[in-house]
Amino acid sequence: MIPIDRPKLEGSIAVGDDRRRRIGFSEFGSPEGPTVVWLHGTPGARRQIPPEAREYAEERGFRLIGLDRPGVGSSTAHKYSSIADFTTDFQTVLNTLGIDRFSVIGLSGGGPYSLAVSHFLADRVVSTGIVGGVAPINGPDAIQGGAVQLAQHAVPLLNVAGRPIGSLLSTALGFARPIADPAISLYGRFSPEADRELLSRPEFRAMFLDDLLHGGSRRMEAPFADLQLFVRDWGFRISDVDAYIHWWHGDADNIIPFSHGQHMVELLPHAELHHMPSQSHISGLGHSVEILDVLLDAWA
User: Fold this and answer.
1) pLDDT, tens only, 83-104
2) Are 231 and 205 in contact (CB under 8 A)?
3) Which of the listed residues 16, 22, 30, 216 has the most CB atoms within 10 Å of its CB?
4) Residue 189: φ, ψ to 5°
5) CA distance 289 to 300
6) Who's near 125: CB < 8 A, 6+ residues apart?
């Protein structure tokens, strides 16, 4: 595995009413500049940040922070009643790290959480970017299709056995170092062309391996918890999110259809769709510097 920039600071922060739970974080770049919080996809963990974004944080002088969600990496497993509940823990993390204002990026499954914090912490958010974000599949804001709708049939099982399945998967991943790289190759073989091209780049393979071996090998309940929340009421209406949202979506996305991005931008009061021709689901990570530039320009 080729070397990539390691976090300047990494740890976990106590959250919850009794402060017995923890949320893991990784920090890159300059502690003196604007803060951008990166919310990983599903699955993923705090280091699912492209190498070029890590380097750009140092070069341009901003603070780039990746957060684990509950049940992955260094975060305690926990079930929220809705996505909206995440904002309380998110605010605790901000306050503990001494962050007043912030920008946020949500990749795929991190999209709903980015919308939640942009809505409930509207007085603190400067700019929001979502890349191939999940859309509701139930309720008044729903749209049909995509991987989440297919996966919702597994939710009754996950309600009962999600945590044990996650624990077993974590144990398996703990012994998976020799096969992790071939597994990424296998995923790429069945992915659209843009994703295959991204996964062929050594630095991106290194990033996914780094994130998997430092996150998923410790705890892997978060993806199942995400799915349970995606199919419920999110705790807020999309039309009530008053923050300005930049939404990037590839028209060859095989996981979250491009039509879902169009649907969400139509529902959001203040939003802009950044159409990425021929791009698929994870290939949007290859545009991280462009995305960061758009969000950082709002700080001016």
Assistant:
1) 999 999 999 999 999 999 999 9
2) no
3) 216
4) -60, -30
5) 17
6) 101, 102, 103, 104, 117, 118, 243
